[in-house]
Each structure stands twice: as C-alpha cells, then as structure tokens.
Design brief:
The complex is a heterodimer of chains A (337) and B (401). With 337 residues, chain A is of the alpha/beta class. Chain A contains 12 helices and 7 strands. Chain A has a single domain, classed as Thiamin diphosphate (ThDP)-binding fold, Pyr/PP domains (Rossmann fold). In chain A, the strands form 2 sheets. Chain A has a 5-stranded parallel β-sheet with strand order 1-2-3-7-6, sandwiched between helices. A two-stranded antiparallel ribbon of chain A has the order 4-5. Chain A is globular and about 50 Å long. Chain B has 2 domains: 180 residues, Thiamin diphosphate (ThDP)-binding fold, Pyr/PP domains (Rossmann fold, 3-Layer(aba) Sandwich); 148 residues, Rossmann fold (3-Layer(aba) Sandwich). The termini of chain B are far apart.
Chain lengths: 337, 401
C-alpha cells in the first residue's frame, strides 16, 4: 500500500520514463515476493514446520500481479485454494500470511483459516476459497453490492480452469451480464484440473463459454505480466464505467504439483513438459529479460530488490515461527458474529 | 450456545389480526423502510410477489432495484447473497420451496456458515435465506419436504421456524438485523393462517422458546407447522382432563434448551413433534436435550414424532400418513385412555373414555389437512365437500364442511 502511495505522489515530479520504470520494478518486486514466499512455504512443508498442505502459485505470478496492479486498493478480490499469490498481490503482509499458514494467533484469520482461507478485509480480499468456483457467487455478490451502494468498486474473481466444470460459475456469469455487475472473472488456465489435463474435462471452446453470456472475453499469455497488466487495466476501466463484466483467460502453468506433497507427477504430465515451461516461459525470467532489454533495471538494482525481499521473507518466517498459537479457548469463538 | 436470558415478549395491543403471509410481508417492508441496505432477491419475487403472493406490493414500494427477480439459479442467488452480505448489504434471498435449499448447499454450508469463523471473526455474512417447509399441499416429493434439520446441523447458521403470524413478523425482523446467516423456514400451509399482530414495532429474539399453552401433565415440544397441531392436540387432551404444555422452540438454532428442560422437569412426560424427517432429525435432537436435562424427572420415555421416513408421496391417501399429525392424533387418543395411570393411579387400570371418536374427530378439524381445507376453501370460494378430491381416509370431509 505504501509503495502504491509513493507511486502516486511521485507522478507529480517524475518523468514518464521514471514512472514507467517504477511500475515495472514494482511488478518485479511483487512477483518475486510471491515466488520467494512460495519457495519458503515449500521449505516449511518439507521441514515439517507447517501443518497440512499448501498449493503453490509458482509459475503463475504474473497473473495475480498484473491484475491486482490494475485495481484500486478498495476493489475486491476472491481467491482460490492456490491463493497466496492473490493475497500478496492485493497487499497482504508476508509475516501475517506466514503466521496464518502455521496456524498462529497473529495470522490473518487467527489461525482458523490456514493456507486455503486467507481473507483480509483491509486489502479488499474477501477470502481464498477451498471450494472450486466457490467464490464466484461471493465475487459477483460483492460486485452487486458495490453497484447498489454506488461505490464504483469492482470485484475480481480469480479461479483456475477447473472451475469451468462448476455450474455456479455459469449461474453468476449470467446474472453478472444481465445486470451489468462490475465483475472481472479471471480464469488462470494452468492446464491441469488437479491431476487431469483440462482438455480431458472441458468440451468445446473455452472462450465461447463466457461469450455465450454476452461477456467480453479476452485470452492472453498469462506469463507476460505486461500483457496481463495492460489487458486488465483496459477491462477494469470499462467495467468501472458500468459496461458490465469481463472474462480474462490467462494461459499459465503450475510449476510445482497440485500441492506441496504432489512430488511424483509423471503419471499425469511429463518432465519434458515441465522443463519446457520452466525454461522458456517462467514469468519472472521473462520479466527480467524485458527489464534488462529495455534498460529499466540492471543486475545491481534487481539484486537489491531480491535482497530486500529475502530479508522480508526471512523476517516473516521468523515472526511466524516465534508467534504464539491461539489460545485453546478461541476454538468456539467467531462461530457467530 | 449460551442459555438465553431475554424474556419472551408478549402480544400486547392485539387489536388486529393478519395472516402469516401478511406478517412476513410487513416485516420485510418495515425493515426495507428502516434500512436501505436490505434487499430481496429471488425467483418471481417482484411483480409476481412469489407463487404464494407473500411479497405482493413490495416491488411497487421499493422498486425493482431492491426487489430483484432472478434467474432460476438457487445456488447463484445464494452466492450473490453471501457476497453482498459480506460487503455492506443485507440481502434476503427467497428460495421458493424448502426442497430447493439443496441447490444452495455449498453457498450456505461451506461459505455463509463458515466465513465469519474462517476469517477469524473479521468478515460477517448478515443475510437471510427465506424458504418454506411443510407437506400436505399435494405437491409430491420435491416440493414438500421440511429440511430445517439439515441447516440446523451446521455451525454458523441460525435457523428459525415460526408458527404464528406474530412470531413470524417479530422473528423475521430479528433475522434481517442479525449479523449472521439466518435460514428462515415458513410453513407454506400456514400463509393463510390469521393471528393477532400489533401495529406497533416489535422484534422477537432468537433462542427464546415460547410457551404457547401452559400445562402440568405433559410437555409437547413443537416446531413451525406442528405447533398449531400440538395446540389442537392439547385442546383435545384437555377435554379428557389432561393438561398439556405446548412449547414452541421458534428457532432450532439457537435452541432454548432451558425452557424445554424446565417444562419436562415439571410435567415428567414429553413428546416432540416436528415435520422434518424423523430419522436423525429435529425431534431426535430435542429428545436428547430432554433426556439429558430432565432424565431424573421423567415418568416415561420421551416420544418423538417426525415425518415418516419416506419421500413425500403425491396421493393424498399416502401423503397424509407421512406427516406426524395422524400419529399425534392416535397418540392423544391412547393417552386419553390412560388418564388414571397418568394421574398416578394403578397401572393397568386404564379406563375407556366415553367417546374416543369424538376426540379423534375433534382433533381432525385442526389437522394439517384441515389447514389445507381452509386454503382450498379460499380458492373454491365455498366449503369443501366430500366430492372434492382431497383424499385421505383419515380425513372425514363431512367434519370439515
């Protein structure tokens, strides 16, 4: 949030080139933050320090960052079981994220939600959701509420291509289109519905589905943060003008397994395929190449950002590991408001 | 759940009588006037005012922006309700038939019920899902169920089952003001039932059972549709000198255990009547509350009567058997025969009461099918006769004519 404010204030004094540079470096910072966060999550799992499992967002960072950077601070998002990236991109603090993942009291949900349910009202995050497409209604309802209240907020519903199998999504797309609700549906097509390739589960043309409801649908390369940002910015702008919902399909790839414990994946996808994506379409590698090619940043500047982030992540983990668990008496608190 | 402390408000200036449906309508209109964040969404809620005509007139007053006709998408409108409730609105989602709550289950059970808890108390879901329950409307298996036990099972939801116009209005206003998801079940056979409802503003707290009739010999705990039936049963029993106390729980969640246990302690006998399926149902829960709380005061095992564990059949001859009414009827009759032993006389010295058929017949007048007849008469604009295909070998139409 603070750096966003800085960006705004600096617009008065800085040149367009400087603003452009700052924007790209912020993409880098946010994407790398997610990458390093998720790598640390994996370590916490492997070191048996994290209860349960987590679903890593590594490989898909450009989507959360590209979309959230196009939003206002008070816009809403809903997220998925693979939600750490969305939460961080919308402004969640690393230390409270880690605390939640470890089930600790200072976590975003006082340890009651865990990895799949991080919600943060302050940053407009209405919650990650462990039911596939489960938050489609919530996002569309939030958009309806924003329209009714005249707040000019929009709601972004992030989901994977697996959600295309759920009926709820089509019910709410219909209503969002009928009533011109300010909703941006963001479909992260990471190719796999858990352990099954989406082409085995999804009939027809994916793009034709939202289009059948009269919803503008754009299909893009989700590994290019510049493309994601530019497209999201355009769609968010027209949604905010009251032109109704839009649907953004981002092609991407889940670099890790379905969850941290999904190590042996050869029965559903080849190592060759994984290597192709990791070596040729890593959103961070692509971004770094662009930054350097366009002389927006040099190695030194990038290393400095990485160093800062590593310290932030390290401190966040330290904070979470040392944080207290919630008092046992909290178990039946917050059942009812 | 903490024991309720608030006293039951009583009907005071009961100068006028309105129907159950009108009471619902008034509650909605008053809350929508009071709070601009309240809105209604559902199938045919606007100009149609729902098939039950309960919402008639609301769209004229509040406009289509606040009384919103939706597609036939129960899961979708429940989901929109959850999202709107989380972000500053107070939606009232209309699910026409209680059977259709099954379509909203993920939104109610996995989303609405858990969001406050999962977010560590940060997010709230102040929504109301209004729906119906009750059989004997000749609507068959997918429009006749009473599924309030399903929702009562899930922590995070509140479940309300009003039995009178007065309660319906006061409880619905409370539901709309509550910061939690509330599922509000209306007995569709009761919409035409009239009762006293004051003009003045009032609300009724959840978790406060209402002693609808005081008694000393037996406790009848009832919900929703079965409260009126229980009251008639109590009347019938009183003719045989048995004083029955009728307790209306009014909300199954929160449940006023204290009032139920105190009554069972006092009378020593209890029966629980509810129109949901008997198996794993509301009657089982309340019977266990009584067994745990009043065990040493009980003179007889707690009797429970729910709907028969079959899909609700279409044919009136079959359907009428499935509601607990005939069973309660038989039970009243049996109980009336046991008056001496009930009064502490010698067991086995039961006497034959003078005219048991009178008890049964008098009771039938006020049965659920009796309520159906009232509805039918309204439609036919005349008294029903035995030529009308009501069916039901248990229901002698001549008695109802």
């Amino acid at each position: 949030m603070n750096s966003k404010l800085k960006t705004k204030n600096s617009k008065l004094s800085r040149s367009p080139v400087a603003i452009e540079r700052e924007k790209w470096l912020r993409f880098y910072r946010q994407m790398l933050k997610i990458r390093l966060f998720e790598e640390q999550v994996n370590q916490l799992y492997l070191g048996a320090k994290m209860p349960g499992l987590a679903h890593l967002y590594i490989g898909e960072e450009a989507i959360a960052v590209g979309v959230c950077e196009a939003l206002r601070g008070d816009d809403y998002i809903t997220s998925t079981h693979r939600g750490h990236g969305h939460c961080l991109a919308k402004g969640a603090a690393v230390e409270r994220m880690f605390a939640e993942l470890l089930g600790k009291a200072p976590g975003y949900c006082r340890g009651k939600g865990g990895s799949m349910h991080i919600a943060d009202q302050e940053t407009g995050n209405l919650g990650a959701n462990a039911i596939v497409a489960g938050s489609a209604g919530i996002a569309t309802g939030a958009a309806m509420s924003a329209k009714m209240r005249g707040s000019n907020q929009i709601a972004v519903c992030f989901f994977g291509e697996g959600a295309l199998g759920q009926g709820l999504l089509y019910e709410v797309m219909n209503m969002a289109s009928l009533w011109k609700l300010p909703t941006l549906f963001v479909c992260e097509n990471n190719q796999y519905n858990e352990y099954t390739h989406y082409q085995e589960t999804t009939a027809g043309d994916l793009k034709a589905r939202p289009e059948a409801f009269g919803i503008e649908t754009v299909s893009i390369d989700g590994q290019d943060v510049g493309v994601v940002y530019t497209t999201a910015l355009r769609l968010v702008g027209q949604i905010r003008q009251g032109k109704g919902p839009a649907f953004l399909i981002c092609d991407t790839y889940r670099f890790h397994g379905h969850h941290v414990g999904d190590i042996n994946r050869t029965y559903y996808r080849s190592k060759h395929e994984e290597e192709e994506w990791k070596s040729k379409r890593d959103p961070l590698v692509l971004l770094v190449a662009r930054l350097k090619a366009q002389k927006l940043a040099n190695d030194k500047a990038l290393a400095k950002i990485e160093e800062e982030l590593r310290r932030e992540i390290e401190a966040g983990v330290e904070f979470a590991l040392n944080a207290p668990y919630p008092d046992a008496a909290e178990v039946d608190q917050h059942v009812y408001a | 759940m903490k024991a309720p402390t608030q006293k039951t408000p009583q009907v005071t200036s009961a100068g006028r009588e309105i129907t159950f449906g009108q009471a619902i309508n008034e509650a909605l209109a008053e809350e929508m006037r009071r709070d601009p964040t309240v809105f209604i969404i559902g199938e045919d809620v606007a100009e149609a005012g729902t098939p039950f005509k309960v919402l008639s007139g609301l769209v004229e007053e509040f406009g289509r922006g606040r009384v919103i006709d939706s597609p036939i998408s129960e899961a979708g409108i429940a989901g929109l309700g959850v999202g709107a409730a989380m972000t500053g609105m107070r939606p009232v989602v209309d699910i026409m038939f209680g059977d259709f709550v099954t379509l909203t289950m993920d939104q109610m059970v996995n989303q609405a019920a858990k969001i406050h808890y999962m977010s560590g108390g940060k997010l709230k879901v102040p929504m109301v899902l209004r729906t119906t329950l009750g059989a004997t409307r000749r609507s068959a298996a997918q429009h006749s169920q009473s599924l309030h036990a399903w929702l009562s099972h899930v922590p995070g939801l509140k479940v309300v089952v009003p039995s009178t116009p007065y309660d319906a209005k006061g409880l619905l206003k409370t539901a709309i003001r509550d910061d939690n998801p509330v599922v509000f079940f209306e007995d569709k056979m009761m919409y035409q039932l009239k009762g006293p409802v004051p003009e003045s503003e009032y609300t009724i707290p959840f978790g406060v059972a209402d002693i609808k009739r005081a008694g000393t010999d037996i406790t009848i705990v009832a919900t929703s549709s079965m409260v009126q039936v229980a009251l008639r049963a109590a009347e019938v029993l009183s003719e045989s000198g048995i004083s029955a106390e009728v307790i209306d729980v009014r909300s199954t969640v929160p449940l006023d255990k204290q009032t139920i246990i105190e009554s069972a302690n006092k009378t020593g006998r209890a029966i629980v009547v509810d129109e949901g399926y008997e198996r794993y149902g509301v009657t089982a829960e309340i019977a266990s509350v009584i067994a745990e709380g009043a065990f040493y005061y009980l003179d007889a095992p707690v009797k429970r009567m729910g709907a028969m564990d079959v899909p609700v059949p279409f044919s009136p001859v079959l359907e009428d058997q499935t509601v607990p009414t005939p069973e309660l009827n038989d039970w009243c009759f049996r109980l009336a025969r046991q008056v001496p032993s009930l009064r502490g006389g010698t067991p086995g010295a039961d006497r034959q009461i003078d005219a048991p058929d009178v008890v049964v017949q008098a009771y039938q007048r006020y049965s659920v099918s009796g309520l159906y007849c009232i509805d039918l008469e309204r439609r036919l604009q005349r008294k029903v006769t035995d030529n009308d295909t009501l069916g039901g070998r248990r229901w002698d139409l001549k008695l109802l004519a």
